Amino acid sequence: MRLIIAYIQPEKLNDVKDELFKAEVYKVSVIPNALGCGQQKGYTETYRGQITEINLRMKVRLEIAVNDNFVKATVDAIIRGARTGKIGDGKIFILPLEECIRIRTGETGGSAIG
Amino acid sequence: MRAGTWGFASVVVVVLLVGVNAGRAESPGATALGAGAAGGTSAEVDTGSTAWMLMSSALVFLMVPGLALFYGGMVRAKNALNMLMCCFVSVGVIGLQWVIVGYCLAFSGVSALTTAGGWSFLGWDPSLLFLKAFGAADYGRFVASGDTTGAVATKVPELAFVMFQGKFAIITPALIVGALAERIRFGPFVLFMLLWSTLVYDPVAHWVWNTNGWLFRYGVLDFAGGTVVHLLSGVSALALCLILGPRKGYRKEPMSPHSVLLTIVGAGLLWFGWFGFNAGSAIAVPASELPVCGRVAALAFTNTQIAAAAAATAWMVVEWMVTGRPTVLGFASGMVAGLVVITPCAGHVVPWHSMIIGGLGGVACFYGCRIKNLVKSFDDSLDTFGVHGVGGALGALLVGIFAFQPVSGGGAQFLKQLVGIVCAGAYAFAGTLLIGWAIHKVIGLRVSEEVEDDGLDIRVHGERAYQLT
Fold it and tell me: Which one of B256, B370, B373 has the shortest CB-CB distance to A47?
């Protein structure tokens, strides 16, 4: 079992969701107001002469728990949906997942991931 | 809740003190310059003017929600509710203070402190406390306006005038809040507001607008409150900034406006209400210009519109050239700057001059907001001094140059205006320093660091402005 964490551009969220659904990955959690900085530069806001440098940009964070046989399909789907070729496309992290439990039934392991 | 107890106690004390005096009031007696004139039957009423004065009062009232939104949008979300509350509380507290004692101090025809030449420094007519003079028989009496050539019965009920002027008294302390944003303790602030209104605003309003007042008699022009409202609040904000100190993290952490959307909507409401603020001040026309709702009101309305348009455009253009971008906050600020600068001039200048006045005001206030950058610890958070102080002073001086009625502008009038703003400004600054320092020493005006970190909404009011999840 793996936990896939992906940071993507907010405007690519719909495309990524569509690609994931096409790959039959339906169980995704989305954290919409993540902030992040990387190679993308910041920008400035000005309020009555007070200049503020914003270098934490808006990002969307996805968390998807998958069985090992779904990892490649999920990662490919995310990349297909999120890639634009420009700096700021984002990153994907894959973590080993120790346990997964469905709250409603108490199932554990691969069948809980579904 | 020590501060809240102090605030409440202060209200009770004021009411008791004044109530004791009011109980000794003589029956409403003879008229005097600046006070009510006899009469007031419905047959004699100037219906158009009365309707306009009542409408103007409502318009000026709307400036409080307008100001609350204007300021509220400029602070961080965690303090938005507190900013609005500090503006709104004036409607309640000063709304009461005005009818209890404020109108008496400012607009009595009887003076408490007068020189031999008839220059009055403070009004005192006990029959006006709690508006007791407006009893069953006399509630319709007319207000006398005019200039030093003689008071004139306007055929507008004085109660309408009381209400109109009361809205000015309400909004002026709310303007000061701009300098106290995000760090003021609420209870002590209410106490400050009460003392300031009674000891600073009411006397200065008396000097400038009461026909016995010494600055009025000296010849200072202030049509709708450039000195009395804007300069006073701007200078007082400056004084309080010195006492309070800057916000935690000022100049280091981002403190951007959380909703410029609210700010510009607020500015729009302010402009709408300002038509009442300026054009309603035609209540104080001399005999030759009656009726009240006549050509002076139309002139003031026109000047208000033109100056605000000129200032908003000027600010936008200057900002576009200087920073490369026209900002919404800048346009909204320009609107307000133009309205401020035309306030003392509205009934005294010809329309095309108001274009110049507004344009100058927009540019002056644009740079006025940058004055605070010269001193590291001067945190006039919402530019009360930068816009209202600078704009009010500029407008008060410009009317000395551009006025065509009741006197012509020129060197002599300019000097009179200068005397007016220096005296009122100095008095306000000193008075505010004293009141603010006294309150700060005894109970403290500033919140603790943790409260400032957490946000005033949740710590002072126990509420959040936005419950988005």
Answer: B256
